[in-house]
Design brief:
seven-stranded mixed beta sheet, 6 helices, 7 strands, globular, binds S-adenosylmethionine
Length: about 210
């Protein structure tokens, strides 16, 4: 990996060591009023071996389908420790792996599907195609990736509010609203199976097919 890319990954790892202390509390209103309704949509109907990548504190775990083998993976051991506790509290055996999306420690064609919620607003644009190529490598042919991602609203007031919040969001979570994830999907060789707004005009769902 290039030195510069390593530095960006290391920055995010250190950022999330700190952010893990308050992630769930700070994110609670967004989870409650926005994401909670969206997450089940991604998971329903999935089966087999699934990668929850950039899983954070395990917010998706509530919706992991029964009888699936879900690998809960993230760059940050501290975020994953919270995910582990959450998954155990749900009465499920956790399968936790510390993993970097840029260099996944899984064999080729290992997974039937990948779910990645709000990882791509955190990953810098220049690293996204590389991460998506890695995901494509570990997916079975025809396997799907489901991504939730923020974009700037077209509503002038909402957009202004997002612009005002952007420095805070980037400082706390490393996240931005102006990533070009759809372009990187195509660069990485995914077919775009679906792309639609799922919350107001601020949260996009991407479904890519390997
Ligand atoms: C905004 S949080 C989203 C967490 C969770 N998916 C959710 O929906 O609440 C972004 C997560 O991506 C992880 N992350 C950042 N860079 C990563 C990388 N290169 N590989 C894997 N995970 C990464 C962070 O550690 C963090 O847990």
């Amino acid at each position: 990996m290039k030195q510069n890319d390593l530095a960006k990954t290391e920055y995010l790892r250190r950022l999330y060591r700190r952010t893990s202390l308050f992630y769930d509390v700070l994110d609670w209103p967004f989870e409650h009023f926005r994401y909670k309704r969206l997450r089940p949509e991604l998971w329903k109907g999935l089966s087999g071996r699934i990668l929850d990548l950039g899983a954070g504190t395990g917010r998706n775990a509530f919706y992991y389908p029964k009888d699936t083998d879900v690998v809960t993976a993230d760059l940050s051991p501290e975020m994953l420790e919270r995910a582990r506790r959450r998954i155990e509290a749900l009465g499920r055996k956790p399968h936790i792996v510390v993993a970097d999306a840029l260099n996944l420690c899984f064999k080729d064609h290992d997974f039937d599907a990948c779910v990645s919620t709000f990882l791509f607003c955190v990953l810098p644009d220049e690293l996204q195609a590389r991460a998506l190529k890695e995901i494509k490598r570990v997916l079975k042919p025809g396997g799907k990736i489901f991504v939730l991602e923020y974009v700037y609203s077209r509503n002038p007031w909402r957009r202004l509010w997002m612009k005002l919040m952007a420095p805070l969001v980037e400082g706390l979570f490393g996240a931005r609203f102006d990533r070009n994830t759809d372009q990187h999907f195509l660069e990485a060789g995914f077919k775009m199976a679906e792309k639609r707004l799922v919350f107001s005009d601020m949260i996009l769902l991407f479904v890519g097919e390997a």
